[in-house]
């Protein structure tokens, strides 16, 4: 009979303590005193930009337990569907970042638009209607120029519903920034810029910025013509438990093992966290291939 493993839990909720705060002897004691029966499962997600071909890889290494009682109890399961209701959900934020890294690049536009007092929307629905009409005007212009509908992701932000605004990533071909601002026409101080992706992290920094939610609520909406992130690949055999325990104790070892496991990819960064109850670890790493 095939052995069953238990890993359907939210590992980012279960593993929050940073390993970098522990001395090596503390890590050794943690692994010795809290030893549980587990192996490590790896989820690999790749986001290849459609313009440059650069691929950003995310690797998540987390424990898969042999006994159900050892699995952490968390509010959510391992992977939940990204919600478009708001951006308090980390899965939605990470999904948007992947969409941005795949679909947008040099020459595209990111912008922030608001509303003047005389045309301030009185509801979320009215604000979204204004944005939808704005995108329709853009697409009519694109159609006249023989272009397909624009790709976009917009994020509507509002705080107590006093001063809503929205961020948008949108195709930059066939339109300049002045035309875009004129087509919106509902605020005196729009902010539009041409996108200049980072050579290694692509649009991660920009997408992280516009998905932050320090106040109020944010809702996001993607166009239907975006290329979607591929399904993650999962493996129980990419990293053995002994490998993981060496990796979490030594950053150089972690880098070396990741680059060996993913040939052709350059290591960018990683975070390592642990759970003091079961003495198991969680690794989130990013790598790039140009």
UniProtKB/TrEMBL annotation:
> Which superkingdom?
Bacteria
- The name under which this protein is listed is Replication initiation protein
Classification from the root reads: Bacteria, Bacillati, Bacillota, Clostridia, Lachnospirales
């Amino acid at each position: 009979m095939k052995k069953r493993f238990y890993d359907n839990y939210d590992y980012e909720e279960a593993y929050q303590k940073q390993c970098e705060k522990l001395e090596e002897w503390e890590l050794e004691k943690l692994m010795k005193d809290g030893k549980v029966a587990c192996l490590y499962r790896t989820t690999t997600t790749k986001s290849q930009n459609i313009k440059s071909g650069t691929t950003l890889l995310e690797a998540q290494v987390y424990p898969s337990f042999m006994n159900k009682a050892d699995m952490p109890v968390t509010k959510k399961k391992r992977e939940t569907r990204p919600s478009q209701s708001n951006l308090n959900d980390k899965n939605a934020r990470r999904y948007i970042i992947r969409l941005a890294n795949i679909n947008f690049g040099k020459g595209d536009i990111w912008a922030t638009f608001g509303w003047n007092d005389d045309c301030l929307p009185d509801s979320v629905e009215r604000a979204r209607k204004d944005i939808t009409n704005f995108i329709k005007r853009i697409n009519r212009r694109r159609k006249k120029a023989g272009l397909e509908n624009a790709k976009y992701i917009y994020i509507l932000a509002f705080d107590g519903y006093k001063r809503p605004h929205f961020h948008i990533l949108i195709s930059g071909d066939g339109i300049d920034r002045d035309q875009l601002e004129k087509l919106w026409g509902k605020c005196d101080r729009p902010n539009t810029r041409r996108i200049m992706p980072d050579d290694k992290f692509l649009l991660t920094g920009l997408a992280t910025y516009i998905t932050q939610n320090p106040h109020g609520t944010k809702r996001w909406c993607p166009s239907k013509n975006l290329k979607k992130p591929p399904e993650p690949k999962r493996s129980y055999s990419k990293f053995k438990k002994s490998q993981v325990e060496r990796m979490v104790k030594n950053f150089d070892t972690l880098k070396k093992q990741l680059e060996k496991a993913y040939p052709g990819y350059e290591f960018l960064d990683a975070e390592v966290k642990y759970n003091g109850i079961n003495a198991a670890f969680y690794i989130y790493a990013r790598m790039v291939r140009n």
